[in-house]
Design brief:
- By secondary structure, the chain is mainly α.
- Among the domains are: 19-25 and 42-51 and 138-168, no CATH class; 68-131, no CATH class.
- Helices cover 55% and strands 7% of the residues.
- The protein contains 8 helices and 5 strands.
- The protein has helices spanning 9-32, 38-52, 60-64, 71-80, 85-92, 127-131, 139-149, 154-167, and strands spanning 68-69, 93-95, 102-104, 112-113, 118-119.
- The strands form 2 sheets. It has a 3-stranded antiparallel β-sheet with strand order 1-3-2.
- Strand 2 and strand 3 (102-104) form a beta hairpin.
- It is globular and about 55 Å long.
- The two termini are 20 Å apart.
- 28% of the residues are buried.
Length: 168
């Protein structure tokens, strides 16, 4: 097992540029026809990946992406701040045109403490954040999500990289 190392974002982005297309091809093949035992492999590799990737040294997801806020998220988080849901939406969110999803107005996320990469609302964070990067989900069903996340999340990148080596 590889020892956990802090994430160097510049180095990570360079690796992504080099391997993104091969990762996308691999994930497209997985979507079409997943090999037998892929879920067991995913579970094993996920454990390895979390022993190697230190999210707090990265926080690239919070710096470059926005979660989708569900109505439950908005209600819970606005109550935490003593705001109405409308006040919360007006201050922090916008409604995406095509989907109608509620998203952060700005990046990095307003709830990210840039000094230590910790979430200031971790206990009540949006469900999308709590589930990110969705590694334990069925790989075949979430391959389309991983195609995007591989560019932003070193853990997703690493699990896809390990999976490609294991499946060959």
């Amino acid at each position: 097992m590889i020892e956990m190392q802090p994430i160097n974002i510049r180095s990570f982005r360079k690796k992504v540029r080099l391997k993104k297309s091969s990762f996308r091809r691999f994930l497209t093949k997985l979507e079409k026809k997943a090999p037998r035992g892929i879920e067991q492999l995913t579970a094993r590799l996920e454990k390895e990946v979390w022993g190697e990737v230190d999210c707090l040294s990265c926080a690239n997801c919070c710096k470059t992406m926005t979660p989708t806020f569900t109505p439950g998220d908005i209600k819970r988080i606005s109550a935490h701040f003593g705001q109405t849901t409308d006040e919360f939406k007006q201050k922090w969110l916008y409604k995406e045109r095509g989907t109608g999803d509620w998203m952060n107005k700005k990046e990095p996320c307003q709830f990210l403490n840039l000094s230590d990469n910790k979430c200031s609302i971790y206990e009540i964070r949006p469900a999308d954040c709590a589930g990110f990067p969705h590694l334990p989900k069925k790989m075949k069903d979430y391959a389309h999500v991983h195609k995007q996340n591989v560019e932003y999340c070193p853990a997703t990148y690493r699990i896809v990289e390990k999976m490609m080596m294991a499946v060959k």
